[in-house]
Design goal:
The protein is of the alpha/beta class and 236 residues long. It has two domains: 3-67 and 194-228, no CATH class; 75-189, Rossmann fold, CATH 3.40.50. The chain contains nine helices and five strands. It has a five-stranded parallel sheet, sandwiched between helices. Strand 2 (110-114), helix 6 (117-125) and strand 3 form a beta-alpha-beta unit.
């Protein structure tokens, strides 16, 4: 497995996997051989402080707002839709809600789901006919998903297509779509749990804010990686 693959399994800063690995390193420093108790304690304290800071809603929203802005298409003016493409990933509840809104408003001929069977069952359970859903869980990464979409639309062009992804993932999705010359409407789905932006709760660390920090940091890193590989253009 590649280092990138291992890193994705562990997770980035803000994830429980990264926290566990970082704490393990601190324990090794404190109690391993040769022992470095001061360095170990400092490492563990630093890890805890970083996670505490990432858990503040104001910090989480600040990181998320550093992502490129996206404009979501208006369902009321979208018109007839032949195909709705859904990318599986984080914030699944928000994606499901966005798909259901699009289904109610536009009744697309086909819902092309790039995600696992559980997501397909959720959509069916919410009232979308199984005959309208095509499910494929093979593409495992955002780039692979968009490559698959590009190949699909070349083989079977549609008059009007749209794509659903979370609002955090959407900047990267749109950037990749531009590289492939895909003409789609984009519906950015909401977060499953949006941390408070005002009031007393915006000043108190929460697990929801930590999750937002984690996902936003991941997208920042992914955008930088995609640019470095030439998979997307650097925007002026």
């Amino acid at each position: 497995m590649s280092p990138i693959g291992i890193a994705k399994i562990i997770g980035g800063p803000g994830s429980l996997g990264f926290f566990a690995v970082s704490c393990f390193v601190g324990v090794l420093l404190a109690y391993g051989w040769p022992k470095r108790p001061t360095a170990g304690r400092a490492w563990l304290l630093g890890t805890s402080l970083v996670y505490l800071v990432l858990g503040f809603p104001v910090v989480a929203h600040s990181i998320a707002s550093s992502l490129p802005p996206v404009t979501t298409a208006n369902l009321a003016t979208a018109g007839k839709l032949d195909e709705l493409i859904v990318l599986g990933g984080d914030n699944e509840d928000g994606r499901v809600a966005a798909v259901l809104d699009a289904w109610e408003a536009l009744k697309p001929e086909v819902i092309l789901l790039l995600g696992d069977a559980r997501l397909s069952r959720r959509l069916e359970g919410a009232g979308i006919p199984a005959a309208r859903i095509r499910q494929n869980d093979t593409p495992a990464t955002t780039r692979a998903q968009m490559e698959w979409v590009a190949a699909e639309l070349r083989a079977r062009p549609v008059h009007a297509g749209a794509l659903v992804a979370s609002r955090l993932q959407m900047p990267r999705v749109i950037a990749v779509a531009r590289m492939y010359g895909l003409h789609l409407l984009f519906f950015a789905s909401p977060l499953d749990h949006d941390p408070a932006v005002s009031g007393v709760w915006s000043l108190i660390p929460s697990f929801e804010a930590l999750q937002l920090s984690r996902d936003a940091l991941y997208e920042c890193a992914a955008l930088s990686y995609y640019r470095s590989r030439g998979w997307i253009h650097v925007q002026p």
